[in-house]
Amino acid sequence: MAMLMRTDAFHELDRLAEQALGVVSAFARPSAMPMDAWRDGDTYVLAIDLPGVDPSAIDVSVEQNTLTVKAERPDPTTRGDVEMQVAERHHGSMTRQLFLDDGLDTERIDARYDAGVLTLRIPVAEKAKPRRIAINAGPERAQIDA
Predict the structure, then answer these.
(1) CA 35 to CA 114: how far, in whole Å?
(2) For 39, what's the count of Cα atoms within 13 Å in the CB-facing half-sphere?
(3) What are the residue ranges of helices labelled H in 4-122?
(4) Does the pTM exceed 0.85?
(5) Which of 9, 63, 84, 121 is most buried by a 10 A CB count?
(6) What is the CATH number of domain 4-78+86-128?
(7) How is 30-49 classified by DSSP, letter by letter?
(8) Helix, strand, coil % over all residues of the chain, rounded to 5
(9) CA 59 centroid distance within chain
(10) 112-142 pLDDT, tens digit each
(11) 66 within 8 A of 97, measured Cβ to Cβ
(12) Cα distance between residue 122 and residue 26, in whole Å
């Protein structure tokens, strides 16, 4: 069962426009927040690349089952007499949302930022984990009213 559902509305709109118009860009626009996600035992791990982003400029929130990551990377051209020569990285505000399954424990999400990577660890909720059911041996005793 999938516990994460990815959404990137702008990427999907770009993809649909390219299909409708028959346009394929040689320079496909990558996501501003590239991400890997995997399951490690009873925990889902998300690794989101945010190089050059100050940790204080990252906001992670959960509302109902929607996980939202917002970040801001400063634009270097706003500092003095800077003349941009090549601009391939996204600058400014970025947002990424994921819809989480009810089987995840959103109360216990752990977020860490190291070396430009935001790592979120989302445990599977106890109620969603498989469990063994005890089997009682012997005949079932019926209650007989006298």
Answers:
(1) 15
(2) 8
(3) 9-21
(4) no
(5) 121
(6) 2.60.40.790
(7) --SS-EEEEEETTEEEEEEE
(8) 15, 35, 45
(9) 13
(10) 999 999 999 999 987 766 778 888 888 876 6
(11) yes
(12) 36
